[in-house]
């Protein structure tokens, strides 16, 4: 019910646009991806707590496990690395078909007009994606995670081994996944479609946060069952630069911007 304010840690900036932000289930830590690194922030103080260096390529997205003990970091190549959040130690990786993977026997030509130059070899035994991973989703207890890629597929993995949890990847839309076990189908759907579009809006309680360009708007929505009550814009803010990503968890709202700034809404 109090006023909403926008603030950013003074002097804190990442190298390059913040491509993705994710708030832990507890709401006390936020992860932001920029360039080849992931920063961990306290949502209470805005201080940068740690930096996880990637594998020399762009990080596309980040995702917390249900217990907040693992952070999945997805790269442009399609490789997903799991980190222990307590110490920053790498726990495992779901390898991709990419030139950086010595086990991959496929051909990797240059990307042309956004299309991968990948050509599969029948001799290759790598089970991963052949293009960038755009979204990661977790099973309710964290034993599995699913990855959706620009190669058009969804893959399910064991979190303990980072090996495929299904023999085949999933193609097409959820409506075409006939015969899949319900839990697997739901996990694959959340990876494919997302809970919501993180670049358009997110919700914290009765407040919906939206962004267009560099403008952030907070809207209070009606209580469930409140007839005749209309949504009301309660606050708006001008960010330093265009907004690339938003994430809400409880009362914590984190915003990632084009200029490398990470903003917090209270």
Automatic annotation (TrEMBL):
It comes from the Eukaryota. The keyword Chloroplast does not apply. The lineage of its organism: Eukaryota, Cryptophyceae, Cryptomonadales, Hemiselmidaceae, Hemiselmis. WD repeats lie at residues 126-161. The keyword Repeat does not apply. This is Anaphase-promoting complex subunit 4-like WD40 domain-containing protein. SMART domains: WD40 (SM00320). Keywords: WD repeat. InterPro entries: Apc4-like_WD40_dom (IPR024977), WD40/YVTN_repeat-like_dom_sf (IPR015943), WD40_repeat_dom_sf (IPR036322), WD40_rpt (IPR001680). It comes from Hemiselmis andersenii. Residues 44-90 form the Anaphase-promoting complex subunit 4-like WD40 domain. SUPFAM superfamilies: WD40 repeat-like (SSF50978).
